[in-house]
Amino acid sequence: MLSRTADSLYWAGRYIERADYLARILEATLRLAAIPTKQGTESSIWAASLATSGCPLLPNSDLTDPQDIRDYLAFSPDNPSSIHCCLTMARTNARSVRTALTVELWETINGAWNRLQELDMPLRGDELLEFLQWVKGVTLGVEGATSRTMLRNDAYWFLRLGAAVERADNTARLLDVKYHLLLPEGERVGGQFDYFQWTTLLREVSALTAYRWVYRDDVKPWHVADLMILNRQMPRSLASCQATIVRYLDRLAADYDNRGPAQRLASAQMKHFEGAKMDTIFQSGLHEYIQSYLAENRRLGEAIHQQYLS
């Protein structure tokens, strides 16, 4: 496969996953902002959502108003990681490798882009919530079409690899911001607002039911962190995403009969989860642990790019 074809497939997967993630952030933030709390809390919640997104900020930009942040994350053409730009770039990348995709997958991505062009933006109130639900539905449609119709060959591995790398990065950012930034000043750790935030985080990644099945307990931060970091049964956990990355890279190594730096780096990162305990992670610092993982994930992305995409 040509490197430019692999690059387009890889980034189509990443952009679709990123659009889904931003939709989940916005939906959760709208829920949190609707809770009556102390003055100034709404602004801090929206500032946290901006930090969680990982979106680049324009020079001299002053995004403090909740509505401005909402529009920047969802619709802004100046934000290359806005939902609108992500879906557009996913379609652009998919179009450039149209022959590598099945009809069903292409129609799902292209249909989402066509629908996007028909929307009158920006959206407000219930229209925005409906839009966010639609974006999440698009992601499910792409995953379903990919899983049910594509051959298990290098095109499939690159598409799914991009999604897995992006999902790992997003999960780490989400957990780090909740733990490190989100609880407003004056609110009690373990209080009602703190409990609602952790519950909302679980809803944000469709994991609230899974949490109840696994722990059969009230929502507690250390259990949430365990589910989102170490539990391999949880598809959005860091351990699960890393195992998926290793599996797809191993498939590519087998297809091309060559293991390189990307495979070695991914396998080394996977070893960090073997035998890991949340008590040890909390004692050494959850924020530091997640920042270290994010740095490793960036290095892995660079290794994948150098080995396959350039």
List the helices and strands and how they pair.
Layout: H1 3-33, H2 41-53, H3 66-74, H4 83-96, H5 103-118, H6 125-149, H7 154-182, H8 192-204, H9 208-215, H10 221-229, H11 238-256, H12 261-271, H13 278-284, H14 286-309
Helix pairs in contact: 1-2, 1-4, 1-6, 1-7, 1-8, 2-3, 2-7, 4-5, 5-6, 7-10, 7-11, 7-14, 11-12, 12-14
How would you sum up this structure, described in words?
With 310 residues, the protein is mainly α. The chain has two domains: 1-150, no CATH class; 152-310, no CATH class. Helix content is 74%, strand content 0%. The chain has 14 helices and no strands. It has helices at 3-33, 41-53, 66-74, 83-96, 103-118, 125-149, 154-182, 192-204, 208-215, 221-229, 238-256, 261-271, 278-284, 286-309. Helix 4 runs antiparallel to helix 5 (103-118), helix 5 runs antiparallel to helix 6 (125-149) and helix 7 packs antiparallel against helix 11. The protein is globular. 42% of the residues are buried.
Q: Based on DSSP secondary structure assignment, what is the total number of beta strands?
A: 0
Q: Beta fraction of the residues? A: under 5%
Q: Biggest sheet, in brief?
A: none
Nearest-angstrom radius of gyration? Answer: 19 Å
Task: Give the SSE string.
Answer: HHHHHHHHHHHHHH
Task: Tally the structural domains.
Answer: 2
Helical residues, percent: over 70%
What is the overall pLDDT average? 87
SS content category: mainly alpha
State the end-to-end distance: 12 Å
Give start-end ranges of low-pLDDT stretches.
181-190
User: What overall geometry do the principal axes of the alpha carbons give?
Assistant: globular
Number of helices: 14
